[in-house]
Amino acid sequence: MTEEPKTRMTKQRAAIVEVLARGGFRSAQDWHDLLRHGGSTIGLATVYRALQSLADASEVDSVLTDNGETLYRRCDSGSSHHHHLRCRVCGAAEDIDIPTFEAWASGVAAKHGYAHIEHTVELTGVCNGCAQRSF
Amino acid sequence: MTEEPKTRMTKQRAAIVEVLARGGFRSAQDWHDLLRHGGSTIGLATVYRALQSLADASEVDSVLTDNGETLYRRCDSGSSHHHHLRCRVCGAAEDIDIPTFEAWASGVAAKHGYAHIEHTVELTGVCNGCAQRSF
DNA sequence: TTATCTGCAAACATTTTGCAGCGAG
DNA sequence: CTCGCTGCAAAATGTTTGCAGATAA
Q1: In this predicted structure, what is the pLDDT of residue B79?
Q2: Cα distances (Å, whole numbers) of residue A61 to A72, A76, A93
Q3: Which of A87, B26, B108, B109 might form a disulfide with B117, Cβ 3.0–4.6 angstroms?
Q4: 3-state secondary structure of A1
Q5: B113 contacts in chain A (CB < 8 Å)
Q6: A55 with A72: CB under 8 angstroms?
Q7: How many CB atoms lie within 10 A of CB B103?
Q8: B-chain residues within 8 Å CB-CB of A125?
Q9: Closest chain A CA to residue B128
Q10: Terminus-to-terminus CA distance in chain B, angstroms?
């Protein structure tokens, strides 16, 4: 039988969930720094493992930056598939809807004879606040 | 003064351009394997450096996979900004047009007060041929 | 000639894994 | 008591860099 191990709520995992609650996209290492900074002695590997399992459980979103780092962010649980508009300067992110995009993607795929489509859409920019600060 | 070094057409660079000509997205290491397989004794670092400089010169496209690898492909020179529909199985890729996407992206960005927008759109699937082969 | 390119190996950065002990259930 | 979780350090991966010698222009 295929039996999934059940997740235990440890102090470390709780700490991770807590810092994640403050929102924003950060790399695993950044979250780790944040935790240590807050007094935790949690290990980096543990953070990676926890973020991985949380991502599997769809409790965090993960996106890939241009330089190959993975960023994680607490996911609005219950909310289904969506995308983000992220500020390159301050890391803030808005959840955005793609009303026509999903349909469009399937359409293009079908037209080319492709099946099992997956898509990555990442929008980045400079938010209002950061724009005023920089220019 | 800022003086850009000018590119020399060496045997290795020519070999790289040649294998790139067969099309498809491949990782730097895959291109390297392909070259060695074809009798070249080119070094991996050279392949990385060449792909980098070709990418700077917009002669190759590069995309980032989910597992952090960078894939490179000869770019249809002259053709402007576009996106791809790539087969996860055989690596084939179609250039696709996004008529409404660019406009939509700017719209969403404006609505949220974001400027200097950049976007990444990557579609992957299983192409007709591979689908028949697998199922 | 001479500045760029090359191959090699070592350096890097990020993420994953092995292992012995800890601790939630 | 069990079995998953933890921290540490070591391994793995993908990419970049330093250097001495080769080579295009």
Answers
A1: 57
A2: 6, 9, 12
A3: B109
A4: coil
A5: 127-128
A6: yes
A7: 10
A8: 109, 114-118
A9: A113
A10: 60
Residue type, A116: H
* Cβ atoms of residues A74 and A60 within 8 Å: yes
Residue A124 CA to residue B8 CA, distance in Å, equals 36
Bridge partner residues of A94 (DSSP):
A85
pLDDT at B31: 94
**Sequence letter at residue B116:** H
Please, which residues have CB within 8 angstroms of residue B50's CB and are 6 or more apart in sequence? B12, B13, B16
Q: What is the pLDDT along chain B (135 residues), one digit of tens a residue?
A: 656 677 889 999 999 999 998 878 899 999 999 999 888 889 999 999 999 999 988 889 888 887 778 999 887 755 566 788 888 877 778 877 766 677 778 888 888 888 888 888 888 888 888 878 755
Cβ–Cβ < 8 Å for B83, B121:
yes
Q: Describe the crossing of helices A28-37 and A11-20 by its angle, rounded to 10 degrees.
A: 110
Q: Is the pLDDT of residue A78 over 70?
A: no
Scan for tokens 């409790």, then name that residue. A59
Which DSSP letter does residue B60 get?
E
